[in-house]
Every structure is written in structure tokens, then in C-alpha cells.
Amino acid sequence: MYRLKRYFSPQIAEIVLKCPDGDSLWESHRQEVTVVVLDLRGFTRFANNAEPEEVMALLRNYHAEMGRLVFKFDGTLERFTGDGMMVFFNDTIACEQQTKRAVTMALEMRDRGKELRTGWLAKGYDLDLGIGLSAGYATVGNFGFEGRMDYGVVGKVTNLTYRLCEEARGGQILTNRNTLSKIEDFVHVEPVAQLQLKGFTHPVSAFNIVGTKA
After folding, report:
1. Omega prior to 92 cis, within 30 of 0
2. What is the pLDDT at residue 113?
3. Model confidence over 129-163: pLDDT tens digits?
């Protein structure tokens, strides 16, 4: 179990062990989820100029700090993509306040990112954390082929979250109007100019989540 959880999100590892034949993972299903995507501004430039050992050391520390917060809030970590991470809520662990939980996690990630940035700047690394967050329905289940499987989410909500993350400046958590309607009583936001996101026909009204009202 310990070894398995080092390579899979703990929730997914539990399912794999409880259902050795994987039957429960094969069936995809429609589920309302909240997706959080984060990555580092300036990472490509940093990776092109730093030694590989420096890059790996920084990523290990960054992944460890962000991963600790994913586990703290019971998010499901779908994947690492270099400096990027994707997390979703409400599957495999059901969560009644999924979007609020995701927001709270994202705010803690942003704050921890600011602390990490101070250390990075001291070493000459101009890096900062940008985050996208949105809620909606997606198809959740097992993807891949017999020799290699991943458990994850697919749908407009994931595409939107990735695009919002791409537009987020360092220190921003960008969300859309539909997601904001679910948490208006919970967060303070500042409007961002409408964004023409790749793959989306109409401009998307975006908002930067500044903090909570509690």
C-alpha cells in the first residue's frame, strides 16, 4: 500500500487494492467535479538555463509542498506535467462542499507559492505560481489501454480550467462566472477582463479569487 500510494493518488490506490480486477474502475460515469490546475510562470525559461539537477531539486520541493495540500483537503491528484499539476474534487471521495474546499486549497497553495517564490528569487529563479479553478460536469473513469491506465476526468470543465490557468498571472487564482455563482457568499474576487480562451467560441468572464469572506 505504501509503495502504491507513492505512485497513485491515495484514493485511487485504495480502489485498486480493494478491486484487484479493476472492474469498478473500467466504467466511466458523469460526475460534477471541481478542477484545479496550477503551474509555474517562468518555468520554461528557468529550465532552459538551469542545470538538470537544479530543475529536479526545485520540482521535488514544489511538488511536495503542493502535494501536501492536495492530501490535506482530500483532493484527487490526477497527474504531474513537469511544473503543472491537476487536482479534482468530488470523486473518488464525495464532497458536499467541493468547490469551497477546492478554493480553500487553492488559496493555501497560492500563499505557499508566495513563500517559495521568496526562496526562488534569492537563488535567481524568477518563478511564480498561477492557478485556474472551475466547476462543472465531466466524465470520470479509467483512461488508457490494458498495459497502462490512468484514472481521471475529461470534459469542458478540465479544458476551461487549463485555459484559465494559462491566463493566470503569478499569484492569481482565476475562475469563471458559473463557478463563482456557486461560491459568491464565500469568496472575495476581483474582475478580470473577458478572456478569449483557445478552443472557446465566446469570451469567458474571469475573476481572480482574492480570499474568503469567513
Report:
1. yes
2. 97
3. 999 999 999 988 777 776 666 777 889 999 999 99
Compute the Cα dihedral for 64, 69, 72, 73 and give only its sign: negative
Q: Which helix (H) or strand (E) holds 69?
A: helix 52-72
Q: How many Å from the N-terminal Cα to the C-terminal Cα in the chain? A: 38
Alpha carbon 68 to its chain centroid, in Å, reads 13
Q: Is 196 left (phi over 0), alpha (psi -120 to 50) or beta?
A: beta
CB 137 within 8 A of CB 104: no
CB proximity list for 129: less than 8 A, separation 6 or greater:
38, 39, 40, 41, 109, 110, 113, 114, 116, 117, 170, 171
The kind and range of the H/E element at 121 are: helix 98-122
CA atoms of 83 and 141, how far apart (whole Å):
24
Q: Burial code of 83-108, b = ≥16 C-beta within 10 A, e = fewer?
A: bbbbbbbbbbeebeebbbbbbbbbbe
Other Cβ atoms less than 10 A from the Cβ of 139: the count is 15
Residue 63 φ then ψ, to 5°: -60, -40
Pairing of strands 148-154, 128-145: antiparallel
pLDDT for 58-115, tens place per residue? Answer: 999 999 999 999 989 989 888 778 899 999 999 777 778 999 999 999 999 999 999 9
> At 147, is the secondary structure helix, strand, or coil?
coil
Tell me what the mean pLDDT of segment 52-60 comes to. Answer: 96
